[in-house]
Design goal:
Layout (H helix, E strand, L loop, with lengths): L7 H16 L4 H6 L6 E8 L9 E10 L3 E10 L2 H6 L13 E11 L10 H4 L1 H15 L1
Antiparallel strand pairs: 1-4, 2-3, 3-4
């Protein structure tokens, strides 16, 4: 059909989460080595317009809820032209409207768990990651 398969957007959501954690100086691998896992417990997705093969797309990811036990994300997948991609630098601080055509929006909700799949408090399990996430959210509100 010449369009991106619908389930690929879920992979793009995961890439958005992974890169957000990486920007804070952590990796999912290191997080799991510390004994903390982050399974998806709920997913919501709305398809607005299809991405076509060879489109340049960007996944915008933001945290909407963060506690020691839970974290919720929202996503927008947008098709960008070259000029709009250059605008991304100015959006780094959250200023302005997101560029491009909105293709998909969604949200995922997660619970921090240990290797036994029991709820785990992030502030007790991996306090450095908890502090980094908390600081990034506080910095965004200032």
């Amino acid at each position: 059909m010449g369009v991106v398969y619908h389930a690929n957007y879920l992979n793009w959501f995961e890439i958005g989460r992974t890169e957000m954690i990486r920007q804070l100086g952590f990796t999912y691998r290191a997080m799991e080595e510390e004994g903390i896992l982050l399974p998806v417990v709920d997913l919501d997705i709305q398809y607005k317009s299809p991405a076509h093969y060879d489109d340049l797309v960007t996944v915008f990811t933001r945290i909407t809820t963060f506690t020691p036990l839970r974290i919720h994300y929202e996503y927008e997948v947008r098709r960008l032209n070259e000029e709009e991609r250059e605008l991304l630098v100015s959006l780094a601080n959250g200023a302005g409207e997101l560029p491009g055509d909105k293709l998909v929006t969604g949200a995922t909700r997660h619970v921090w768990v240990n290797r036994s799949w029991r709820p785990a408090r992030l502030d007790k399990s991996v306090p450095k990651l908890y502090d980094a996430l908390r600081s990034s959210l506080l910095g965004r509100k200032e």
